[in-house]
Structure formats: structure tokens, C-alpha cells
Amino acid sequence: MNHFEKPKITGGEGSLPEEKFTSIVRVLGKKYEDISEAERQKVLEIMEGRFINQKKFKEDLLRDFGSVENIPEAIRTIFLEREKTSEEVEIINIVNEKTNELRKKFGFSELNISPENIYVISQNAPWPKSLDPDYYYVPIGQFIVIREPKIKQLGSSKTIFTKNILHAIIHFKSYNALKKLENSSEFNVYKAGLENYKRGDDSKPYFGNLNEAIVEELTISLLKELESCLLLKDEFEQTEGIKKCLSEEKTKEGKPLLNGNEFYIAFDKETDTLHSAEFGRSQERRILNKLIDKIYRKNVGQFKNKEEVFDLFAKAVMTGRIMRMGKLIDKTFKEKPFRKIAEIYDINALEEYVDSLK
Ligand SMILES: [Zn+2]
Fold first, then answer.
1. Rounded distance, CA 330 to CA 118, Å?
2. Cα–Cα–Cα angle for 325, 23, 202, nearest 5°?
3. What is the pLDDT of residues 243-271, one digit of tens each?
């Protein structure tokens, strides 16, 4: 293939990226033609190697960095993993099945994330401060790190583990692309779902807020579909029971005790305390839903329901194709706000902007 010719995997709306045994579907230079096809294939091969064989990845890390302490913190954590329980392995398999259904919906074949690529870290082990406190996904390492969701005397919650694994695996199985770093032979994440990192500045990616909102909304709907699953049934029933009991309860300040975002609640009789876990990204999701509401109302007759509008956003996350979503946003509002929505990084500013759209 000619280096200056964009390969088929970039395709139009009709064709989807070529399948690889890694979550990385594209590798780019500063401009697409800035890296050779040979270099591109080499990076994809390295990624495939990491996806297939984490043991070798760890051996390579130790060789390259000399010792565990020299490895960057977000990656070093994998050396602290504790053995997964058989239930955790079962949950990973269930989540793989569920998220493969999601991939199929958007035209992709199955991609199974092996338990070997998921590192469970115990509560008392050190955890990188700069990262999400519960779990994170490292595209360049092809792995997920998750902290065991232990609640004091109550022990581990299967529901919280499932919810966190769902969210992380959706990131893993969404559109992932790498880009060569400036003045370096190294590559790093360029796109993950909608999230788009600018060159030379990885602190404020485009679409960061919307991407998280969509991934968490997908997590919520997939978790709901798992309510009857044998492994989780008891915890779901327990949560529902407590929710019913407490639906009228108020806090000392007179606010409702439960906010409706809880997906897991347990009561510790010994200490007389309530423990709950809530779905995340509530402001991001509120902004997304406001945007979807407005698009649905302003495009009368074009969508059967709001779900169809959401699917367009979800499709953009899974395939990396943002043009249809972008065109819809721009044709809906006078302001043609697609680019600005991408660029506003501050979440309060983004909410204000979406509120202001006419
Ligand atoms: Zn996330």
C-alpha cells in the first residue's frame, strides 16, 4: 500500500475498521502519512502481543525498566495484583458476553478480554493518586486495573465489581487509536471512544465529558440486563428491598436519603450503617441527556424515541465515526455547536453552554 493512501480501515460510514486481536484499530503519525505502513504494522503487532500475552508484557517491562520501582505508576500497579476469585472470573466472562452484544449491535465481531488482562488490586495496596479511584484502562498496555470493592465488614460486592468491570471493558472495546508522539519514537493513546487527545497536550482531551457520560449510560443499561443473572440476583434483590424501605426516609437536612442513583445498597447490622454505591458521572450524564432531549424535540418525526438519538452517540463511541453525530448536532442548533461542545473541557461551562443552545 502507498503510504500516502489512507488505508481502508479509515473507511466511510459504511465500512468498519478491520478487526485485530487488540483493541487498537488505528495507528497514526502527526499526519496519517507521517508513519510508514511498516511502522504502523509494527506498532499493531506490539499491541497484539500485549493483548494476547500479558506475562510477556510484564517480563518486557522488567527488562526495559530494570526494576518494578522504575516503571511508571499507572503501569507498575499491575505487579501488585492479587489472585482473582472464581466469582470474579465468572463476572469477567459474563461482562465479556454482554459487551460483545454491544459490539455486534454496531457491526463488530466479538472481542474477549481475558481475565489475564484484568488486574485486581486489594484495598490496602497502593493506588495511583492521579487516576480514577476504582478502576482504569490503559490502552497502550492493553489492560484494566480494578480495585476490589470491599466494604468494611460486609466484604466484597459482586454488583460493584460487575459495574466497574462493565465500565472499564466498554472503554476497552470502544474505538481505540494510537498516535506517534512528537519528536519521539513512542506512541500513546490518541482516541478512546469519543475522547480525542490533542497533540502535545494530553491534559484536556476533546469530548472527555461526553465520552464518559455515554460509557456510563451504556454501563447502566447493561447492568440492568444482568439483574436476573444468578450470580448477582441476591445482591440486586437486597438493594431493591432496602430501597423500598428507605424510599420515604429523609436526612437530617430534610433531603431524601436516597437519590435514585444507587445501584447497590447494603446494611451493616453490627455498626448500624448503610453502605451504598452510586452510578458515576451524574453531571456528565445530565448534560448528555439535556443534549439528547433537545435534539429529539427539535427533529420532529426523525427519531422514534430518545433511545435512537442516544444510539447515534453510542455508535460514535464504539466506531470512532463522529460525522453523523456531528452533522446532527450542527443541523439541530443555530449555533452549529459541535466543535465547541468538543472543545469545552470545564464541565460547568459545558453544562451552561448546552443549556444555552437554541
Ligand atoms: Zn470511564
1. 39
2. 70
3. 999 988 888 899 888 988 999 999 888 88
> Do residues 52 and 21 make contact, with C-beta atoms less than 8 angstroms apart?
yes
Query: How far is residue 221's CA from residue 212's CA, in Å, rounded to a whole number?
Result: 14
- pTM for the predicted model, two decimal places: 0.90
* CA–CA separation, 204 and 195 (whole Å): 10
3-state secondary structure of 145: strand
- DSSP, collapsed to helix, strand or coil, labels residue 67 as coil
C-alpha 176 – ligand 1 centre gap (Å): 13
State the distance from the centre of ligand 1 to the C-alpha of 31, rounded, in angstroms: 28
Q: Residue 121 contacts by C-beta under 8 Å, 6 or more apart in sequence?
A: 77, 80, 81, 82, 127, 145, 146, 147, 148
- Max Cα distance, the chain (Å): 69
pLDDT at 154: 66
Cα–Cα nearest to 259, from 238, 274, 237: 274
Give the distance (Å) from ligand 1 centre to CA of residue 322. 19
Q: How remote is the CA of residue 194 from the centroid of ligand 1, in Å? A: 11
Instruction: Name the nearest CA neighbour of 10 among 142, 170, 171, 177.
Output: 177
Q: What are phi and psi of 278, to 5 degrees?
A: -115, 155
Beta bridge partners of 180: 187
